[in-house]
Amino acid sequence: MPFLTEIRRLTLGMVACFGAIIVAAAYWGWVVAPALLSRDDNPRLIEAETRIDRGRILDRHGRVLAESIPDNDRFIRRYAEASTAGLIGYYSLRYGTAGLELMFDSTLRGDSAEALTLNALIHQPIRGSDVLLTLDLDIQQALFRSMSGSRGAAFVISVPDGSILAAVSVPSFDPNLIDLEFDALRVASEQPLFNRALQGRYQPGSVNQTALIIGALLQETPLDFPNDGATMPVVLQDMSIGCSVRLPDIPLDLRESYAFACPQAFVTLGTTLGEPVVESLTQILQHLASVTLTSGTDTSAVTSTLSASIPDSSFEAVILGQNGRTVTPLGMALLAAAVANDGLAPYPAIVQQIVDPNGMPAPDPTRQPGIPVTTATTARRLQDLMRFNVVNGAAQNAGRPSLDIGGHAALAQTGARQDAWFIGFVTLGGRQAVAIAIVLEDTNDVGLAADIAGATLSAAQQSLALTN
Amino acid sequence: MSASAGAASAGQALRRRIAPNQLLIVLGAVFVSVNAIALSVISPAYRFALLIGPIWLLLSIGGEWWLNRKAPNRDIWLFPVVMIMAGWGTLAIYRLLPDFGERQLIWLILGAGVLMAFASLRQLIALLRGYRYLILLSGILLLVTTILFGTNPSGAPGAPALWLSLGIFYVQPSELLKIMLVAFVASYCAEQYPHLRGSLSSVSASNWRIAPRLAGPLLVMWGICVVLLIWQRDLGTAILFFVVFALMLYVTSGLNRILVISAGLILVAGVVAYLVYGVVRLRIDIWWNPWLDPDNTAYQIVQSLQSIAAGGLFGQGIGQGSPYFVPVAHSDFILAAIGEEWGFLGIGTALCLLALVVTRAFRLATGQPGNPFRALLATGLGLVIGVQTVLIAAGVTKILPLTGVTLPFFSYGGSSLIVMFAAAGLLINLSASHAGSTHAISD
């Protein structure tokens, strides 16, 4: 047979070629498969994502705030309304996830080992768990409506359980249109994508006075000693820091100074209390500012560009809340909650329940213990001072007939502009109350902040009264 | 009698009753039917998948019956293996593009008919040898006609015009040329073989001079391939023709230098094409580093590799993966689609089936004593199937640059499938009438 040798060589060569291809297929299919599949340019990742039946997000009454709607063989995320965008955030295949969508991403996606295995084996779409929030849509809508047209953030907390009833960041956006509008939102001067409620850090300014007055009450400093020139501004570097509202040059005692957030008397008080006491009082605010909605997540690493602190580390700047230490809207709401709750700030909770795809509720998460801020006696005396503020002080706009509302309206200097603060509460009978903190950027209108708080606390009182 | 002895005797009895080809048909029927049923339940768009199993089974049983009558001494492995591959390919195409799958089913029926005809026409082998110059002339005419009147069914501007329109359907002449080329070269080499082997004996191993009767056709064939490359930008077919021809010449002459010179000519043509033609440059560049532009120029090869990666060992299952992300997955990249839905085991099995056909062809060639034409024809047909498989499978797995040829028996395409069935039919014909047959000796 003349060609035998050559054909045998051809056979060997051909078998070697086929073998090499099989080895290459094993290389791509096994050895480097995880790296190949995790590449950003793998369209299967996006396709797999669209096939996840992401769990719903519901308010405390079971009203749907976010859900996934089936569309052919994929799911589209839909949001009930824009008022919750600041808290819930968005879920976008193109632009990622933010807010509670990010915070509870794994739960909403159903990333349990069983679900992933089931999907891998029989390609059934993964269904995520529903997240039932403590949020009350009525209160949320009331707060959002009141804040429309402003820039800032607000938190409403139920006392004594610490449930977050509302959280707003304005200006907001429509999460249903995030894919279309993201690029424009990203460069918008008002930074609507910046979550002021969850990530914003602000200069406390005169809202720091609540901490100082706690010190005064604890040390039994007389509050009714009149101070001449109490309404005169304090000049810190080249900045003039005055009362929350314009007042004539009249003597005010400490209680009245607190009611109008005038700084002069608090500079004197701070000096009287001494640096160690003032430091410990501001540390309370810092501790409250470190509290986040998810334990273990520290948002202190997230810094806001919205508030510029005054580069002055003098003791006077510390007293006036104008040094480098910033606070959060949630932290200030917790301070107000502590006042309403006999000195104990409840640990905030945003999730009421998690319900798996089969309708089975997950075990209730262990509630963190509250944070002691002051004594019960001090807290009750402070409640009275805050009630006085609403009746006679700068927080008058918060007052509502037949509601027991207390609060403190103050300004914070942020370089060339001012932020308006309001912290306060409404009592609901028994030990129940609702606390609120609002910060409005670039305005000295504390009356507006107080008015928003009054409207929101009124809505909260009505909603909770209906629930109970 | 002990239990083990009883079991062994039962096994022997079963083997006596069920021949390997029958067993393959049963396995093929189970494979095709189970996959077709699985596909049909996924979506109403796949409801006609249920037809694939019965049609495949009818063709297979009918084919076996016909071949048992017309070619009882044939190689019994070829027909069932070819049918399994074609049935599998039809399923994979139907899963990707149901409309194309329905058309492929029609081509499968026609292809099976062509296989029967080529396997049972007793004078066909003799005709191929006797009319080799007519075959060569027809081939050149087809090539010229395609260059002049070729079109592309997609109608895409700038797409290679490799098809001829015959009204209701298109044919790809380069597919027909494959068999014509092999038949002509086998006939020519069989005639020249005593002289070629004689020149070998008269030339020392260190002498690289090659006789004109060897160098002439080598250069003519190289020229035809260069024409294919320049006028039609059909890189894959040009390489396939030249490699098959060079290897047939190597088998005929036994000269290792043929391989070296052929490799050199391919290299020269490749370098020139890289410098002159953008499409060649692009293919080599994206082969060298596809990760530089994975979303654009290298999208196809990157998707192919990700498709294979997504399949893992066992695959996602038919209809469960996303092979449609690979552009033209139903044609050149069907191996990637198989990799995603049937996994590494699927790729391995498909390549083993193809390797089985190639090695059976080579085995057939070695069983043709005293008949160099039949040996070279079997070798050439095996080479066409084998080299084409290597070119596309190595391209899909990034061993070689992409050349744009189909995977034999699997890929979509009427011309490709029918020509491959014709090649299989010829191999069956050769196997059925080889040793000791007066008919075989007279070819």
Mean pLDDT of chain A: 87
How many DSSP-defined strands of chain B?
2
What value does the average pLDDT of chain B take?
Answer: 86
Strand order within the widest sheet of chain A? 3-2-1-6-12
Number of DSSP strands of chain A? 16
For the sheet with most strands of chain A, the description reads: 5 strands, mixed
Biggest interface and residues each = A-B, 34 and 53 residues
Distance between the first and last residues' Cα of chain B: 54 Å
How would you describe the oligomerization state of the chains in this entry?
A: heterodimer
The tally of helices of chain A reads: 18
The share of residues in extended strands of chain B comes to under 5%
Order of strands, widest sheet of chain B: 1-2
Helical content band of chain A: 25-40%
Descriptive overview:
The complex is a heterodimer of chains A (468) and B (443). Chain A is of the alpha+beta class and 468 residues long. Helix content of chain A is 40%, strand content 19%. In chain A, a hairpin with a 4-residue loop joins strand 7 and strand 8. The longest helix of chain A has 28 residues, at 4-31. The N and C termini of chain A lie far apart (101 Å). Mean pLDDT of chain A is 87; it is low at 295-312. Chain B is an all-alpha fold and 443 residues long. In chain B, strands 1-2 form a two-stranded antiparallel sheet. The longest helix of chain B has 33 residues, at 334-366. The radius of gyration of chain B is 22 Å and the shape is globular.
